[in-house]
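go over this record:
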Amino acid sequence: MTRRMVFIMGKQKPISRNSFLRIVTGLILGLVAWIWYNLTNFQTERENSLEFRHNQDVPMGISYFEKYYLYRTDRSVRAFLTQCTHAGCRIGMSTGAVLQCNCHGSQFDAETGKPLKGPAIKPLQEIECRFDKENGQWMVSLRPMGGKLS
């Protein structure tokens, strides 16, 4: 049986086939994890650069979309992500101006995004929403207000 040799500080030390396979497997798994991490970051950056357009006639109250919702009052239109700040589940519409997470029951005020009932303690992430006078449309970007991801 042939043994593989590894040089450590000028001395030869035999390495078993089992150890060699563990090292190679670890390197391959590390490479796969690195590639996956970079691909998921690319997807997040790509999604955050998307802009969604809505006509000027956004209805009053809640307009719910998969990744975000719009809340219109007579004074403004605000946009929030539909990701619960407790465990990251999608929140859904509930009664009136209250949104509820179906995973653990957290409730949020739709107008402000503030939690009304736990376990969530952080408000929903507000995202960029502006009116483009040139096109007469509301522009929504998945980028958080202030440009920082939380």
Summary: The chain has one helix and twelve strands. The two ends are 56 Å apart (CA to CA).
